[in-house]
Give the backbone structure.
Amino acid sequence: MAFYGILAKVRPHDSMAVRGPVWHGSRATCLPDVSIIVPVLNEAPLIRPFLRHLRARAPGAEIIVADGGSSDGTVDLASGFYDQLVHSERSRAMQMNAGARVARGDVLWFVHADAELPRGCLDEIAQILHQATVVGGYFRIRLPQGPVYRLTDGFAHYAGILLRMRCGDHGLFCRSTVFQDIGGFPEVPLMEDVEFFRRLRSCGRVVHSDKRILVSPRRYEAIGRVRLTFAYGFIATLYVFGVPLPKLASIYKRACGDAPVADPNRMATRRDRRPENQCMTNKTDSVHSISLSLNDMGVLNQLMHGAATGFLTLTQMVALAESPNPTMKAIVVHEYGGPEVLKYEDAPKPEPKEDQILVRVMAAGVNPVDEASRSQKYAKFFGITLPFIPGYDIAGVVEKIGAKITRFRTGDPVYAYLSLKDGGGYAEYAVATEVEAAPKPQSITFGEAAGVPVVALTAWQALIDTAKLSAGQTVLIHGGSGGVGTFAVQIAKARGAKVIATASTANQDLLKQLGADVAIDYTKQKFEDVAKDVDVVLDSVGKDTLARSYGVVKKGGFIVTLVARIDQGELDKHSIRGASLGVEPNSSQLTEIGKLIDEKKIKVVVSQTFPLSEAMKAQQQVATGHTRGKIVLRVAEEPK
Ligand SMILES: NC(=O)c1ccc[n+]([C@@H]2O[C@H](COP(=O)([O-])OP(=O)(O)OC[C@H]3O[C@@H](n4cnc5c(N)ncnc54)[C@H](OP(=O)(O)O)[C@@H]3O)[C@@H](O)[C@H]2O)c1
């Protein structure tokens, strides 16, 4: 092959290491030109000692640092220690491919910055690639500490051989011509190593070396050995039972997409940069200060480590690991239109601003206004621009807080009405301000809590803030069985008012259960025949219903509509007052409503729950205009 017996190209750092033949027993062979590609992302504490180590263990090899957008000074620290630097998008596969594109070597070797290479590694590669039928190979990986790691190491290795797969780009090498033939690493968010290995094997033999690359167990140390081992074990077990890789990738992403571990954007501290902390084998200081990557060792390689020891439930797995480029599942609208424009897909996970909290959403409420946001007219009115994530009601757990947040802490259960402009509720994560969020009522589930904010605030602001409903007054509530209506009836009752409410035949029982004093079946009876001289009307129906309502209000009374412009002429004619309402986020009101819920003065009626992926169906139901109580999207499993 071309690389045997060819003198190395002289590069800035290998002037004293021009390669010539080396001897292996009785057989002479020459070292190939090897390009070592090191994908990095915020590796400031490790990068220098690692590159020095690389030079010492692989003298003469071309070193290419492939940066995925480090923000901690990694690139500056690496300067002078590499032969080439390439930048690419933050994705391990893309970084490695970018490195491979500029590589001059006949052999490409992919190594991560937390590794310790075996002595004589280039000799080993030369030996393995000596046979023309061999297209590539890999070094075995070892986690250095403890018998459990040893055991899982062994298990991972032999399971890999048995299953004819290799997981972990860490330590993989191959001929550069073959790398090009198979198109490099597939640029997928996860499992690119497994697919790459499969393609490599289809081109020829792939041989492993028994020499070990020592790899930092930083993920295990940062997250917890048992915790992470069990998490990986669960997914590995699914793999063994034949769950397809794309499905596994999506489960892994969903379950382990975010972790309370190192912040990849954090600058390395001065302490991190101290020479004594820059030793690769001195892991304890660096473990918590570096960006941890999903693919540090290759996901399935770690999964197999985990499979040696056990199982874990999905809910326990949440927040175990982080992705270098975090995404989440969400409903995204890319174009205006009907419910078919609601697409369930991956979207960037939001990052809270200094006045925001990041909420891990458990459930999201569905409202008629969500449908309106899909139309260009209303989107423009609300200030929404494409693409966007709809949804204004959320209930979940605070995952992260901005610097200016004082009223919430990580782990707090909250519910919120997100502003119409920003929305973002139909997603695994959403951001909210302190004005938008309040503590979740303790006595209800997240699913129920997600059905509260928009409609309960609307009822509150209509009856209490706007119409100033007081004890002893009579209120007529149209659409008493809907989202707004169910809260309006109960808020009015809690206020001490007499309640007359309208709904269709099927919902008469609900009106009574909610506490309405008089229930009117609008399909059988004209409401004005029953409701006369009321103090307040709350209209959520509009048109004819609103037009006929002016006449039932007593002089000096109040009519508030949610769906139309109030007719000043009608108000004057009847000597009444009135207003149209646009609901606003209000944290203190949401807190008050939460107290009434916990005091059992208000119950939440959720008639249907859909998984997030079926948001389209949920909106179609709401669009009928005949929803009983609330429709909610389930985004994650309720915590026990
Ligand atoms: N302006 C704002 O800030 C604001 C805020 C929230 C909501 N809204 C608007 O208010 C309206 C109601 O919202 P929502 O969330 O309560 O909707 P919803 O959950 O869909 O409830 C609609 C209710 O209206 C009842 N209904 C339908 N036709 C009726 C009629 N002719 N007479 C009496 N009741 C009738 C239905 O009961 P049956 O099934 O028994 O017919 C249903 O329960 C929507 O148009 C929404 O956009 C506005």
Notes: Residues 367-369, 454-455, 458, 478-479, 481-485, 502-504, 507, 522, 540-541, 545, 562-563, 581-583, 622, 625-627 surround NAP (CB under 6 Å).
